[in-house]
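Please check our next protein.
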Amino acid sequence: MLLARSHNGLKWYEFPGLAAHPELKHGVFTRLGGVSGPEGRDLSLAFNATDPPENVVTNLGRAEAALGLSPAAFAGQTHGVEVLVVRPGDGYQPRSPQEARPGYDALLAPAPGVTLLVKVADCQAVLLYDPVSRALALAHSGWRGSVQNILGRVVAALGETGAPPARLKAAISPSLGPCCAEFTNHQAELPPEFSPFMVRENYFDFWAISRSQLIAAGLKDENIETAGICSRCSSEFYSYRRGDLWPRFGFLAGVRRASP
């Protein structure tokens, strides 16, 4: 069961297994506690055509402050599989739409001192962490990312930094659940190997697909946590399929540097 946290009107969730590592600060933020939306109370973390950029900057600052983290690095997600490596001082902390680097759907921090952010509204945000090397990654995985196995790509990239798959901890955010993941055109959109994950006609369990891909990449089943919350069913989160076309909630994480 996820751990519910709140501070100054913000509400977010933490994963129990990840929370056992105090150097890792993380949170899946709900839509509560920001300055966006018609009532000025929503915490959208994505620059978009309907929200003034200053609102998003304020929301980002509130989320970062709630976790005690530095400004977050994030990219212009495109449903691809490219991984952006972020190191302290790289300067990938956009504070306007023009500053976000396009074409990356995963971010990897090989060393502590970097905050990462992935923004979603039904897609999965998946965190991967090695408690030994303290390498951290966050991936944006929608159905297109699942088809391209972005999670396997990120696990391999972490392995190149010296973080073997068997050591990795993984957490899958609230996202479109098997109750709502309808794909009426799945024969054209999804590969045959996804067929065993069809829970009823045209509905698929992408939580189980991601778990299967992570295990195939070398992770231990007991090291994978799934939120088990459908973003379309829960009003706490933005959902594209429920009609939230532009705003996004975020999975924010960072590893603090050791004290001198």
In short: The longest strand covers residues 249-255. The radius of gyration is 17 Å. The chain has six helices and 17 strands.
